[in-house]
Amino acid sequence: MKRFLLLPLFALMLVVQSKESSDWPYHGLTLSEQRYSTLKLITDANVGRLGLAWHYKLDVDRGTEATPIVVDGVMYTTGAFSIVYALDARTGKLIWKYDPQVPRLFASRACCDAVNRGVAVLDGRVFVGTLDGYLVALSAKTGKVEWKVDTIIDRSRAYTITGAPRIAAGRIVIGNGGAEFGVRGYVTAYEATTGKQAWRFFTVPGDPSKPFESPVLAQAAKTWTGEWWKYGGGGTVWDSMAYDPQTNLLFIGVGNGSPWVRKYRSPDGGDNLFLSSIVALKANTGEYVWHYQTTPGDSWDFTATQHMILADIVFSGRERRVIMQAPKNGFFYVLDRVTGELLSAEKYVATSWATRVDMKTGRPVESPDADYFKEPKLTLPSPYGGHNWQPMAYHPGTQLVYIPAQELAFPMITDPKFKMTSPLLWNTGIAVAGLPEDKQTEAAVLAQTGGRLIAWDPVEGRAVWNVQEDHPFNGGVLATAGNLVFQGRAEGKLVAYSADKGTQLWEAPSQTGIIAPPMTYAISGEQYVTVMAGWGGALGLVGGTIANAAGVRSISRVLTFKLDAKEVLPPAPAQPSLPELAEMTEPAATIDRGRAVFHQYCSACHGATAVGGGVIADLRYLNARQRNVFVETVQNGIAATGMPSFANLISAEDIAAIRAYINKRAHDAKGK
Q1: pTM, two decimal places
Q2: Domain ranges in the chain?
Q3: Which of 192, 282, 379, 509 could form a disulfide with 287 if both were Cys (CB 3.0 to 4.6 A apart)?
Q4: 301 is catalytic
């Protein structure tokens, strides 16, 4: 206990409260982000009695990714477009709602749907980051705005916020998204009571003709070449953070480069610090302490923004304070969180870009298939990652980490004509190619695509058990003292497994794909399990073929379960049917042109090969009136739904070619 005497009273209070509470007060339950609950009213012996206690319908049916916070019987959570809900955690009754009125066009500035991963709650305030870049403090009792600050440093660039704020040293910390569009990453801490900026840490260096913000950025600039700052550089802190009160260190996960292709942003090579790195900062000042770069010179969108877990484990016969992460690149890392020393780095999924991590240098040993600049390469993992943002969980009893992993390859193809034409468009340097459009090849691709729930031993660096899943992009994970692991699935169900063996014990339908992580809490001697259900996010927009194989569409709800509950969901809306199709009169050359332009401008929202993912309109289902006004619609945009104008980007002739391609894909769907 002596070591706690050096801590601020605030930090000590957080440690004690985290361990004793039946609430879910922080994003990862505790500041260590383990997502492990000591509650055991629901166990592997009685989980089969779980039933739906209540459900609450959200305002917008799009990607739903939040972890609810529960404090004193009130649940605070978010839906798409950063709408905040305060609900009675026992009944699901709405207490208040805050809609920040995010302009819907900001959805087109977000790479991966208009999502939000939740709020932070501290001292009677609820903090939310909005898609249009504001950090807002609300009264926890009324939902009224107490303060609001603009976090964006340059509004000519496509900055957004999708991540949940974190609490560190009594301050509210938030990062931003936007690396796909061409921004410079940073993370900012604000005073909780006033919203005043306390500090800001830039993750990549800016224009070297101007003073660097800190000496560490001057050193980082030596790992870049060319004129990277004109492209933004990237390195956004768009999701994971963790705070250790014992050392007063804040750990941030840093994202990919902008553009993805290193030879465009840094043509003479270099590690490009601090891209794809875990960075430790002093929580009260934002001062750099150490970093570990998981993917030096990243060219594959292998972000290190994935969930980070703090734990104390016995490693090589010695108790170590560690930080653990399974970033996109396919390796599971264990680091000493005090010093940044690498303790372990083993593959948790198949990788084609690197064979191993050299434990002496800490660097990956790249394979011949890593470099795709001159020749396209089918890469594992894909830019969706061996593990994406969906949180893992660590169970101190089993000493296992449960990883929501996925398996899908991606054709990395450099765009030889790349130039940054607009800071509001995707600027990856990658040529977008659609999936095969014949059913036989499509089926073969899908057969090699799936997900896995992996129980990983971080000390031995191996999987103890696996659950094979039919589809990728499944939900985050919750572990409990009842020997349970909960996970939502892409095909539309919440599942419980035994934590020790991975045996499936229970499932419940959700009518929609689940990508958010479950959480749990107790009120008056009853334990509840809640998950935010609603298909969407990156794969929900682009991966329509996969979504269609899973048979899901987006129906966004809060679903809460408890023992012996009997509530029933209302019937799911019927799946739409194809309208009467227009005749195919355009020549093959026009359709091929439409295919190319569609994948350049439209597939990020409307799905590769024009197969919608159940979130945004599936263009194959356009009726005669919509087809007639298609050119004008694309030129003018639809601000109310978030679709921007393409008048200055796509000619009327090319838009008509897109329409011809969509018509061809509608005929394909009908089997003509």
Answers
A1: 0.95
A2: 2-412+428-563, 588-670
A3: 282
A4: yes
Catalytic residue among 23, 239, 244, 301: 301
Say which residue the tokens 């390469």 belong to: 377
| pLDDT at 13 > cutoff 50 | no
Q: Which long-range contacts (CB under 8 A, 24 or more apart) does 8-11 make?
A: 8/169, 8/170, 8/245, 8/248, 10/169, 10/170, 11/169, 11/245, 11/246, 11/248
Average pLDDT over residues 32-46: 98
| pLDDT tens-digit map of 42-66 | 999 999 999 999 999 999 999 999 9
Q: Which structure tokens are listed for 223?
A: 């790992």
Q: Collapse the DSSP code of 542 into the 3-class scheme (helix H, G, I; strand E, B; otherwise coil) and give the result.
A: helix
Sheet strands side by side (includes 393-395): 393-395, 400-407, 450-457, 462-469
DSSP character for 337? T
Residue 4 structure tokens: 């706690």
At 624-671, the pLDDT tens digits run 999 999 999 999 999 988 899 999 999 999 999 999 999 999 999 887
pLDDT tens string 338-372: 999 999 999 999 999 999 999 999 999 999 889 99
Backbone angles phi and psi of 304, in degrees to 5: -110, 35
Topology adopted by domain 588-670:
Cytochrome Bc1 Complex; Chain D, domain 2 (1.10.760)
Rounded to whole angstroms, the Cα distance separating 485 from 38 reads 12
Q: Identify the band that residue 379 occupies on the pLDDT scale cut at 50, 70 and 90.
A: very high
Count helices and strands (H / E) in the chain.
Answer: 11, 39
User: Architecture of domain 2-412+428-563 in CATH?
Assistant: 8 Propeller (2.140)
Residue 447's contacts (CB-CB under 8 Å, 6 or more residues apart) are none
Beta strands in 233-301 (DSSP E): 233-234, 241-244, 249-253, 257-258, 277-282, 288-293
375 backbone dihedrals φ, ψ, rounded to 5°:
-140, 130
- DSSP lists the bridge partners of residue 280 as 251, 290
